[in-house]
Design goal:
Helix content is 36%, strand content 30%. The protein is of the alpha+beta class and 437 residues long. Among the domains are: 195-228, no CATH class; 233-433, von Willebrand factor, type A domain (Rossmann fold). It has a six-stranded mixed β-sheet, with helices on both faces. A five-stranded antiparallel β-sheet has the order 1-11-10-5-7. The chain has a four-stranded antiparallel β-sheet with strand order 2-4-8-6, with no helix packed on it. Helix 1 packs antiparallel against helix 2 (32-51), helix 5 (253-270) packs parallel to helix 11 and helix 8 (342-356) packs parallel to helix 10 (382-407). The longest helix has 26 residues, at 382-407.
C-alpha cells in the first residue's frame, strides 16, 4: 500500500500559483498538467520500487507463559536491514482479546543497520490460544513523496494461561519469609506425625518430640527433627458445568478457580507431592493421574489454559465414580463446585460419599463480595428493598448448603476471589502439617 506524504501535497500545492498565473497570461495554466503528471509518475515509480524492499526486521518477544487479566510485557526488536537511514512508523497488532495498556505504535529514525528495542504492555482478557496477527510498518520511499505500508510476516500464536505471574510473587515472598503478606499462615503445630529427619539438642521444644533413648545414651535431652512427608497426592476436581458460568467482579468463577488451582499446584510441587486433575461436567472432560514433578504441573497447566465452563448440568455421581475407580491411594481431593442451595449440596454429598471413606475432601466455593454490600444496602427505594431481600435470601441458601456439606463430614472453604488462592494454599499447608493424608 502506498500512502501520500505531506511533502507530496506541499509540492502539489506549489502548482496552484502557476495555475493562478493563467489568469494574467492565457495558456500558462496548461503548465500545471505536466507538473502534476510528473509528480504522479514520481509518486508511483518510487512507491512501487520501495514496495519491493524488505528493509526492516521485527522480532517479537513475550513471556513464555502469558497470564490472563494482568499486564504482560511485549518486546519488539527492530533492525534496519539496509545501508541507509530509514524513517519508520510501526504498529504491532496484539490479539483481539487483549487490551494494550501502553502505546503499541512507534515512530523511529533508524541509522544504517541499526537495531533498537521497544516494548509495550498488554492485558489478555481471556485464556486460550490467541494470535499476534503481525506488525504493520510504514517507511519513506525515495524522494519522500510516499509512505510504503506493509504487514510483516511475523504472525505468532501465543497461549494465555491463568495468572502465572502470581507464582513469581509467591516465590519471592517465600524466599523473603513474607508469605503472610499473601494471607498464607502456617499452623503452630509442627513436627507431629511427620517423617524423621535428624536429632538435635533440646531447647524449649515440645516434650512429645524428645527421644528418650537417644537422650539416655547422650546423657542430655535430645529431640527429634521431623520433615513433612513427601510424595502425597493432591487431586484437583473442577466442575466445568453451568454452576461456574457466573461472573464475580467481572470475571467468571472458572477463571478465579483456575488461578487459585495454579497456585496450589505450584505449592504442592514445591513440597514434593503428586498432583492430579479431574475436569468434568455432564461427562468427564479430562483426567490426569497424580504424579510428581514440574513436568506434571506443566501438563496440567496445558490442559486448563483453555478450559471453559459450559451450560450443562454436572453429573457428580458419574464423575466421582470414574475418579474412584482410577485412583485409590488416600489423597487430598479438592472439589471446586458451587452448591448454592440445599438440594445441590445433597446431590454433591451423595456423589462424594464413597470417596470420603478413603480420601480427605475439601469442597471449595467462590462467593461474591457484592453479597455483603447488598445485605448492608441502605433502603431508600423499593428497588433497594428488593435487592437487599434477594441478597439475604441467596446468602441464607448458601449457608444452608454449607451446613449440609459439613453435616456430611466434609471440610468446606467459601472464599471471595481476592482471598481464594491464599486460603487454599493455607488449607493445604495445614493438612500437611497435621499429617491428615
Amino acid at each position: 500500500m502506498i500512502v501520500p506524504t505531506p511533502r507530496l501535497w506541499f509540492l502539489v500545492a506549489l502548482g496552484l500559483p502557476v495555475a493562478a498565473l493563467g489568469i494574467l497570461i492565457p495558456g500558462f495554466e496548461y503548465l500545471l498538467i505536466p507538473y502534476n503528471l510528473a509528480l504522479l509518475i514520481l509518486f508511483l515509480v518510487t512507491g512501487n520500487l520501495a514496495k519491493r524492499w524488505d528493509p526492516l526486521s521485527v522480532r517479537r518477544q513475550t513471556d513464555h507463559l502469558l497470564s490472563a487479566r494482568v499486564p504482560n510485557q511485549v518486546r519488539l526488536i527492530i533492525e534496519n536491514m539496509t545501508t541507509q537511514s530509514l524513517v519508520v512508523k510501526l504498529r504491532d497488532d496484539p490479539p483481539d482479546t487483549t487490551t494494550a495498556t501502553t502505546p503499541n505504535s512507534f515512530d523511529l529514525v533508524l541509522a544504517p543497520e541499526e537495531k533498537v528495542t521497544r516494548q509495550y504492555t498488554i492485558v489478555p482478557l481471556e485464556r486460550g490460544s490467541q494470535p499476534f496477527e503481525g506488525t504493520f510498518v510504514r517507511f519513506l520511499a525515495p524522494l519522500g513523496l510516499c509512505w510504503v505500508q506493509k504487514q510483516l510476516a511475523n504472525r505468532e500464536e501465543v497461549r494465555v494461561y491463568p495468572n502465572v505471574q502470581a507464582l513469581k510473587e509467591f516465590e519471592l515472598l517465600k524466599q523473603k519469609g513474607h508469605l503472610a503478606l499473601m494471607g498464607i499462615r502456617k499452623s503452630r503445630i509442627k513436627g507431629l506425625g511427620q517423617e524423621f529427619e535428624s536429632l538435635r539438642d533440646y531447647h524449649e521444644d515440645d516434650f512429645r518430640k524428645i527421644d528418650w533413648k537417644a537422650s539416655a545414651r547422650r546423657n542430655r535431652l535430645v529431640v527429634r527433627n521431623y520433615e513433612q512427608e513427601k510424595n502425597q497426592a493432591v487431586v484437583i476436581c473442577v466442575d466445568v458445568g453451568r454452576h461456574l458460568l457466573a461472573e464475580v467482579e467481572g470475571t467468571s468463577k472458572i477463571d478465579h478457580i483456575l488461578d487459585a488451582s495454579l497456585m496450589l499446584l505450584h505449592a504442592a510441587e514445591r513440597a514434593g507431592d503428586q498432583t492430579g486433575l479431574l475436569l468434568f461436567n455432564d461427562v468427564v472432560k479430562r483426567y490426569i493421574a497424580p504424579k510428581r514433578g514440574k513436568a506434571q504441573v506443566a501438563a496440567i497447566l496445558n490442559t486448563i489454559h483453555d478450559t471453559r465452563a459450559e451450560p450443562v448440568q454436572p453429573d457428580y455421581i458419574g464423575a466421582f465414580a470414574y475418579l474412584g475407580t482410577r485412583w485409590k491411594r488416600r489423597s487430598l481431593m479438592i472439589v471446586f463446585s458451587d452448591a448454592e442451595n440445599e438440594d445441590q449440596a445433597r446431590e454433591l454429598l451423595a456423589a462424594l460419599g464413597h470417596l470420603a471413606k478413603r480420601h480427605l475432601l475439601l469442597l471449595v466455593r467462590v462467593s461474591d463480595p457484592r453479597l455483603s454490600e447488598l445485605t448492608n444496602l441502605p433502603i431508600e427505594s423499593r428497588a433497594d428493598l428488593s435487592r437487599r431481600a434477594s441478597a439475604l435470601w441467596y446468602k441464607a441458601d448458601r449457608r444452608k448448603a454449607e451446613a449440609v456439606l459439613r453435616s456430611g463430614g466434609f471440610q468446606t472453604l467459601d472464599s471471595e476471589p481476592s482471598e481464594l488462592s491464599s486460603k487454599l494454599v493455607g488449607a493445604y499447608l495445614r493438612v500437611k502439617e497435621l499429617n491428615l493424608i
